[in-house]
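Re: beginner question about structure tokens

> Can someone show what the tokenized structure looks like for a real chain? I only ever see the sequence side.

Sure, here's an example I had lying around. Input first:
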Amino acid sequence: MFQIILAIHIVIAFVLIVLVLLQQGKGADAGANFGGGSSQSVFGSRGSATFLSRTTAILATLFFITSLSLAYIASKEVKGYKSVVTEQTKPVAPVSPAPDAPVVPN
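And the corresponding structure tokens:
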């Protein structure tokens, strides 16, 4: 399940990058008035901006949902493992020498 959501997440990320790069900036509208010819585009004079903006918003929402899903699944998988840092061990009592053992000078 984790691998499937991760694959979808990566595909959404690449498509989102492409869509953001395809969109024109706000300043590009002024240049289109002086012979840009945007009315002859595939989506119409204003349709491409609306279509790309909506698609970007939908993909950004899906990217956010897959990010949260991956984090949730990863946190559930980690709870089954014991960490070396957080693993609790019983303290060992100090060992005292036996009463009849010879004392060795240092």
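Each token stands for a local structural state, so reading them left to right follows the chain. Helices lie at 2-22, 28-32, 47-78.
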